[in-house]
Write a structure and sequence with these properties.
A hairpin with a 2-residue loop joins strand 3 and strand 4. The chain is built from 5 helices and 8 strands. The protein has 145 residues and is α/β, with parallel strands linked by helices. The chain is globular and about 40 Å long. The mean pLDDT is 96. Strands 2-1-5-8 form a 4-stranded parallel sheet, sandwiched between helices. Strands 3-4 form a two-stranded antiparallel sheet.
């Protein structure tokens, strides 16, 4: 199966802080499926490193108040395009991210408080029928073999 994966989970230094967040489960997943790495923030035109961002309702804003919603939307559209042209059947995305978060994201106060909600990319993929998993759910995909 082809699976779209947050590039940071594969060890690619593309996070807002210029680091990666390699996940052993994602590395294991690579042994069984074809993984397509993606960083929607970079696809949307944002640099690495970049100012931290959080969702504030439908908007995405940086810690210093800049509105980066358009870049997040553009990155989400590009990630969806990759899913379609490469035939991805699912996505494994970085939890809590304003782009990739599934069901829980930071609340926009930059106080490390989580709230119910989806990242921009995760939400768009889900709306278009792509099953979205967080990195804590990788076992579900490993059991589907």
């Amino acid at each position: 199966m082809r699976i779209l994966v947050s590039a940071c989970l594969l060890g690619i230094a593309c996070r807002y802080d210029g680091r990666s967040k390699p996940h052993p489960g994602v590395i294991e997943l690579m042994k069984h499926h074809q993984l397509i790495p993606v960083c929607p923030e970079q696809l949307g035109g944002l640099p690495t490193p970049r100012t931290p961002s959080e969702r504030q309702g439908e908007r995405v804003v940086t810690a210093d108040g800049a509105d980066v919603t358009e870049q997040y939307r553009r990155g989400a559209e590009e990630a969806l395009h990759l899913c379609r042209v490469l035939g991805c059947e699912a996505a494994v995305l970085k939890e809590r991210s304003p782009s990739c978060g599934k069901e829980r994201v930071y609340d926009g106060t930059f106080s490390h408080t989580l709230t119910d909600g989806w990242g921009v990319t995760a939400e768009l993929l889900r709306q278009n029928g792509i099953p979205v998993y967080g990195e804590s759910e990788i076992d579900l995909l490993l059991k589907k073999e």
